[in-house]
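User: I'm curious what two different proteins look like when written out as structure tokens. Can you demonstrate?

Assistant: Sure. I'll show them one after the other, since each token string lines up with its own sequence. Here's the first protein:
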Amino acid sequence: MSARIAGLASLGLFAWITSARAQPTPVSPPPPVARATAGTPRRPTGPPAPRPAVGQPAQRPAAAPPAPRQASRLTAKDRETAVKRIQAEVQAGYVFPELRGKIVERLDRAAKAGRYDVEDPASFAERVTEDLRDESHDHHMSLGFDPTGYAAALAPPRSDAGEAALERRQASREHHGLVELKRLPGNVRYLRITQFHWIDDETGAVYDDAIRFLREGDAIIIDLRGNPGGSHGAVRYLVSHFLDPNILELTFLEGSETSQSRTLEHLPAGRLKGKPLYVLIDRFVGSAAEAFAYDVQQFKLGELVGATTTGAANNNRFSPVAPSFLLSLSFGRPVHAVSHANWEGVGIKPTVPAEPAQALDVAQSLALARLAQARGAADDAVADYAWARLAVEARLHPPVIAPAQLALRVGRYGELAISQRDGALYLVRASRADARLIPLSADVFAVEGSDLLRVRLSAKALDLLWPGLAPRHFPRS
């Protein structure tokens, strides 16, 4: 479903990987290998334990939607058919039965009032989405105009045109959502996840490689900013690395049926416990991405840095609506093992509030400060943390040095010189291009283009600084 999520994210659609098919199917018990246990495309709850045989799935509308049609303009018949289909889906399976009638009536009133009398499919979908959400207060309720997703939902499941193949292609192109791994100064390891894809027998190996990289760091930052959600199978796989095996994480409720998500026992890359963990969040983090942030909060695994998330907790699935729409319908809800609640409608608050654009620097500064204060930290490591943190703090709180103060540093220092132009200082060295100096503090400057060289200026001397090495001292001439 990831391709559809990407297309509908602009509408605020946050999905726990679901099927566009209207008829749910039972879930088989997960196989023993952890990487292959993270759910199927037909279940939004990821890799559940075998479901107890209690209750029956809600009856779904029997009529199948018609074959896909490229509708550049909607007819009155198109709109009427679409509204009736949406109402039938809501009445048959919306997670809160007490709201089904109200939602159906809301759509009926709007249709009779002419609110949906537009020919543009995207405008029609936007108006329906507004009414669905206004009546339900549920971020997962939406209608998206998506001819590609609609066609995939109706194609034979095992075909190259089917939804599973579409999802696999999207996951592969996006490296299963793990789009960036890097080592930050101070050996803080960073992972950015833009979506929680899960493809059986494939995605787990991608996470294993990432975990092995993160393991070598002194602290870990996982960036979820802008992540709209995806498969709980991927969330379960990731969070298992930070918890003991077989820990109850979530219980999913669907009518009278329940299923559970527990942490995995076998993890090829091992567990990642005991390292400082920082997770970056913002208001665009939703659904399955919120589930991971909620786990971090409730299990006290680390700090959440940024802004409050969307507040989309319910489990949803997609259903095709003719001529080319996909309806996202909430059919279940999660209950967390610690809070016995979830984040629907309220979102998840950060433990460290920060402007989302600065959240990475804030998290890195916190991590470096914590590492420097850790008992038993080696002297060379502490010096490395201090070197790295000075640059981070300068980005967060840029030093302001008046031009008159900069002018006092201009002059010759042995074989080196400092010049001033365009409001900045420059390091002048023979046979080298002049290098602009960027203030990190009142007396320490970064050398533009180099992470390994800094300049410390005083009234009487210039020092060249390198991490882990003794400074070179140049008295002022």
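Here's a second, unrelated protein for contrast:
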Amino acid sequence: MSLATADRASGTEIKTDLEAAARRSPGGHMFREITMQDVRELLRRHEAGHSARKIARELGVDRKTVGRYLEQAGKLDPAMVAVTDDVALTVGQRVQARPLVPPSEAWQALREQRARIEEWLTGEKPLRLVRIHELLARQGVVVGYTTLRRFASRELDWHKRTPTIRLDDPPAGQEAQVDFGLMGMVTDVEGRPRKLWALIVTLSSSRYMHVYPTFTQTVGDVCAGLDAAWRFFGGAPKHIILDNASAMVVRASATDPGLNRAFRDYTDARQLFADTARVRHPKDKARVENQVWIETAAGALAANWSRDVAWPLGARCGLKPFGSHGASSGKTSPGPSGPGVD
């Protein structure tokens, strides 16, 4: 074989290696992760007599990488001849195991200040991480802000996302969630710009929703909006979960909330059990919170959504007839009257 022919053959072989690696690598890059299946296939091909170059070309990995795996495979017990999952796992662990990198001086300095940093982050008035960085510098702990951010994230779970736990929906007709949402600025009949609010009532089981627009958030507005919702649904649920608006709740507390006296009279008249959500805990009424942004984006057009687009599903949702005082008494209250009742 002439020198030119050898060069062409070598070039073809190198080109084939590159094409195989690019074809088997994500995005065409020259690197990809070696899985246990790859390790087992590598050992199986070596056992069959394939060369390291051929194994690298067929698997799309570097030849030096193949050499490291074969070197560790040669150090195994001669009794471990067959290529099994245990053998592949042992070889893979020996090659891929990395010694732990000792922490840097900056990381060690932050560990010494761990209790103080945690107190600053989780106190009654948590400090911003930028402010904590400044306070540490004043005390002689000079580290990079990026290092401090990694330390707070890894060691103290700073800004770590909490896992989402899906809750079962209550039975149909059991619960509704109530919240106010700002729909935007509109111009009233006198030409004045005013905030337009929406009282949103969402059935927890079906996510069926009613929207009641209002300029104010008085007790009368809340009662009229709820009556409009019960009329729209064709019935009322047994429980309602409330936002901590002052028209409904006068004392926000996780253990001893206080309802507005006038609003309590309304719930007694409608035979509703009212519970309040905790302050700054939107997940307590997540089913209605998920709908607030829809009404905010829709603006004034959402005001007529409940009446003009949706249709009553009260019977289908298992709601009790509006105004019913229970099957035992046999009494019914007169239908709601006032603004907002269609």
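A detail about the second structure: Residues 219 and 262 are 7 Å apart (CA to CA).
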